[in-house]
Write a structure and sequence with these properties.
The chain is mainly alpha-helical. The relative contact order is 0.24.
Length: 207
């Protein structure tokens, strides 16, 4: 039986949505793939990203559970570390808010398998994802009580929320491509995402 409450799941979903909104390697991969080959070309990439999003929390949960067994107060350290990292990431995102997405040739390589591998590689190489799962997960769930079903639920939710966002992004890219690739849109999106990261970082220390 799961120990995770609806409120915990909801708050974690909100955090995942904010994580998805912040531009990074996955956004670059989806934009490049969708622009070069359309929506169908981006679907295998999105599933590759989902697999990575499924594995990251599993690695984090198992690793953190082991660390907690060695040192129970490590969660306090992770809370402040997560806050500092998110605030720094938010500030850097705002400082570099004018940076435009750049395409990478391996992201646009034709073929379903190539797209899947590109998506999986993009999320594994995403420092934002690794920092999120390693530092923020303990702030949403009680690692002393979670069981196998909880872990399965967390992993599935971690993959599902960004995947929905990625599918919507790829599906609507034809209509909003010019907007997404414009310098003003990049500027607004990066500033909004940076502010959101800073707010989340501050809330972790206060709540």
């Amino acid at each position: 039986m799961m120990t995770i409450t609806l409120s915990q799941a909801f708050l974690y979903s909100i955090a995942l949505a904010i994580l998805w909104l912040t531009p990074g390697p996955v956004w670059v991969a989806i934009l490049a793939r969708s622009i070069s080959g359309g929506f169908r070309s981006s679907v295998p990439l999105i599933f590759g990203v989902a697999l990575g999003d499924l594995l990251w929390p599993l690695v984090a949960l198992l690793g953190l559970s082991y660390l907690i067994s060695l040192y129970a107060d490590i969660l306090i350290i992770f809370r402040y570390l997560a806050s500092i990292i998110l605030i720094i990431m938010g500030l850097l995102l705002i400082i570099n808010s004018k940076k435009i997405f750049s395409e990478n040739s391996h992201l646009t390589k034709p073929g379903h398998w190539a797209g899947f591998i590109a998506g999986f590689s993009a999320v594994l190489a995403n420092p934002k994802a690794s920092l999120f799962y390693m530092t923020l997960l303990p702030n949403f769930f009680d690692f002393n009580t979670i069981n196998f079903l909880d872990i399965l639920f967390i992993c599935c939710l971690s993959a599902f929320v960004p995947m929905v966002g990625n599918l919507i992004l790829a599906g609507t890219l034809g209509k909003i491509k010019k907007y997404l690739l414009s310098s003003s849109a990049i500027l607004k999106m990066n500033i909004f995402s940076g502010i959101a990261l800073i707010i989340v970082g501050l809330c972790i220390t206060i709540l």
